[in-house]
Design a protein that fits this description.
The chain is built from 3 helices and no strands. It has helices spanning 12-30, 39-67, 75-80.
Amino acid sequence: MTTPKKNDPLTLEEVTEAADIFMPLFDAVYSRMPEGSRVEDCLSVMESVAKLGHKLRADKADEEKKLKFGFNKTDLEETDA
């Protein structure tokens, strides 16, 4: 079997793998939406939640980076400094 090209249709296995990741995230947001919310509303909120999640991840990484100094650095980090 050849490697699929970028624009080739997705296989059933690829769609299943993506759904296994996406659906729990969708359910986590949709379960908190007001009753009667539409799927489109939930997808819009998911975009905002994802942006916030990425910002929080970056902020956390920045905080952890600030805490690493002196003897707290790993050998690899010391060579980068």
